[in-house]
Amino acid sequence: MKVSALERATNYVVLVFFALVVLGPIGVIVSLAFGPESASVAREGFALHVENFAEAWVVGRFGEYMTSSVIVAAIVVVIAVTCSILAGYAFGVMRFRGSGFLFALFLLGIMVPTEAFIVPLFFDMRSLGLTNTVWGVALPQAAMSIAFGTYWMRAYFRSASLSIIEAARLDGAGSFRILWQILVPIGRPAILTLVLLTFMWTWNEFLIPLVMSPSGTVRTAPLGLAFFQGQYTQGTALLAAGAVLVALPVVVLYIFLQRHFITGMIEGAVRE
């Protein structure tokens, strides 16, 4: 089907417009992060103030907060992805009574917002002695991520080639071997996409760390940025530098996993 020059130009105009809408605020934040801290310094001429990042890192204690975020994200990703692969394989490949009802229970984890259960969850965690701990912050997020992860991996396993699974069973392979030695290597794009999404959601989570660590013992990077904003309401350069520091790990991880992420999203779009 041939596309006219007018239609092609219209498509480019629309794409450029939405790209500017998305990238515009990011460009403003980055320019502020490298800008002067006060107007008096700005009159001296154009210069990149890289020292804003070092000052924001020290004053805002982002080293401590980002370490907490990395630990929490690592725990959540390992638990959520492993459990999602196992549950997705069970719902996608195995046939057992009550699978539809159990899968519907998993979907409730996607439908119910965090605000609906955060208060009773806090009292449960406090009774178990898990508040103000890394596990108290990580376990609820892992449970929430398993709900989507199970749905994601079930869609992948249901679209896997049945001939490969049947051939492996004829060769004497059990369910464990079929999963980890055959289906998991083939589904690497889908799994890495799930890893990236889980890491991004966990890294950006604000409410659960705020509620589950009332004393501030386990304060993650987004939470630390919010408290940093309260201390430096006028220092836009330091605030912007802190925002860039908090967003940088997700951007770097996406750059490394970009090819697998796009492949996984495209494969997920044509599956169940």
Molecular structure report:
The chain has 14 helices and no strands. It is 78% helix and 0% strand. The chain has helices spanning 5-33, 39-42, 51-59, 62-92, 99-111, 114-127, 134-158, 162-170, 175-186, 188-204, 207-212, 221-231, 236-256, 258-269. With 272 residues, the chain is an all-alpha fold. Helix 7 (134-158) runs antiparallel to helix 10 (188-204). It is globular. The chain has a domain at 69-218 and 249-269: MetI-like (MetI-like fold). The mean pLDDT is 84.
Overall shape: it is: globular
Q: CATH topology of the domain at 69-218 and 249-269, what is it called?
A: MetI-like fold
Tell me the β content.
under 5%
* Oligomerization state: single chain
| First-last Cα distance | 28 Å
Query: Major sheet, described briefly?
Result: none
Query: What is the number of helices?
Result: 14
List segments where confidence is low: pLDDT < 50 over at least 5 consecutive residues.
Answer: none
Instruction: Provide the helix percentage.
Output: over 70%
The succession of helices and strands, N to C, reads HHHHHHHHHHHHHH
Give the CATH class of the domain at 69-218 and 249-269: Mainly Alpha
Radius of gyration: 23 Å
Organism: Labedella phragmitis
Subcellular location: Cell membrane
InterPro entries: MetI-like, MetI-like_sf
Family: Belongs to the binding-protein-dependent transport system permease family.
